[in-house]
Amino acid sequence: MTDVVIAGAAMTRFGKFGGSTIRSLSEEAVSDALADAGLTPAEVGMVFFANAAAGMLTGQEMIRGQVALRHTGLLGAPIVNVENACASASTAFHLAVTAVAGGAVDVALAVGVEKLTHHDKTKSFAAIATAVDQLEPGELRQWTDTECAGRGSLFMDIYAAQTRAYMARTGATAADFAEVSVKSHDHASLNPKAQYRERVTAGEVLASRLVSEPLTVLMCSPLGDGAAAIVVCSAARARALGVSGVRVRGCALVSGDGEKGSLQRAATRAFNSAGLGPEDLDVLEIHDAAAPAELMVYEDLGLCGEGQGAALLRSGQTRLGGSCVVNPSGGLLAKGHPIGATGCGQLVELTDQLRGRCGPRQVPGARVALAENGGGFLGRDTAAMVVTILAT
Q: Thiolase C-terminal domain location, by residue (predicted)?
């Protein structure tokens, strides 16, 4: 198998951009990523284009990538359209890595893009809510048929139910979840690409509008738009380009099996592939679609023991300046969560961290990074999960 390197990485700002389109966002990210790698569109051997919701929100189906990339110079290369809920972009990256590692092409491009803002917000929420098993709606009753649910977001109702169970099991409190949001917004204040750059206090988080008990709106990721692109190539091609490449040490994609465990399975595969463990990580970007998820992921990745997520947060070690920094970009909570772009957006941040080009949010001496990106729900498990490990 060929060693795979990230040669170029770029993203648009994440936010709410009324005048943007899937095409304009894609063009910006692709152009900047290719420039970062020092490559032309003609040198790209294959493209994997990720998007989750355009079909429902714009009516564009079937050939989303070909349409979005029509004027980029990439037409003619194979374009593979990828849809895998919130893990769409990381799935596209996994496929790009696989194509290069297997020798099918020397250079591949992964693009993730989403435009979730819509004049009718209910359509955006309806699109997101399709990422569950529509043939077995009864399994969701445990999440939705409660007095705590039903304020507009099915996924936040699910996260809230998981959170209540986590609180009962571990003793974590709403105040702990508020501190996750405080940390994320502190980090995002240093990120010019983040959707929300204003710092918040724990009191403001707790006092913000209730979405689904115990989640308040400042504990939930926002709707937004954005795109991100990653150029991967063989190590030999990277040397020829003279780029400061970041090595892909492990990239595992698994599907949920209906019972909680997809993250642990994906993490085990990625760590085994990389020959590394949680203790080796310097910086992480994780899927904090709701603030409590960050603490749960700490435990599932082995950053701390079971039930110790809140204690790890309180220790300060996952903040900038700590030994294992989590979501220096601001995470989904503050950087934003345009779902089809999120996975590649995480990898752009980690590539920049490992190259030492993150300015005031730089993690000093970062050498090993991990991205965790999940999408959809299947029973009690995440439907699609990708864990990626990068290193200098």
A: 262-383
Question: Which of the residues are catalytic?
Answer: 86, 337
pTM confidence score: 0.96
Question: Tokens standing for 90?
Answer: 């990381």
SS3 at position 391: strand
Cα–Cα nearest to 100, from 224, 283, 219, 251: 251
Mean pLDDT, the chain, integer? 95
d(CA 145, CA 138): 10
Task: Tell me the C-alpha distance between 174 and 202, whole Å.
Answer: 10
Calpha distance 383→392 (Å, rounded): 31
Strand, helix or coil for residue 106: coil
Counting residues of the chain whose pLDDT is more than 70, the rounded percentage is: 96
Distance CA 203, CA 217 (A): 13
Q: Where in the sequence of the chain do the CATH 3.40.47.10 domains occur?
A: 4-119+225-248, 136-220+252-391
Q: 345 near 226, Cβ under 8 Å?
A: yes
SS3 breakdown of the chain: % helix, strand, coil, rounded to 5?
40, 20, 35
> What tens digit of pLDDT does each residue of 254-286 get?
999 878 899 999 999 999 999 999 999 999 999
* CA neighbours closer than 13 Å in the CB half-sphere of residue 257: 9
Distance, CA of 183 to CA of 134 (rounded, Å): 36
Give the Cα separation of 379 and 237 in Å (integer): 43
| CATH match of 4-119+225-248 with 3.40.47.10 | yes
Q: Is 195 helix (H, G, I), strand (E, B) or coil?
A: coil
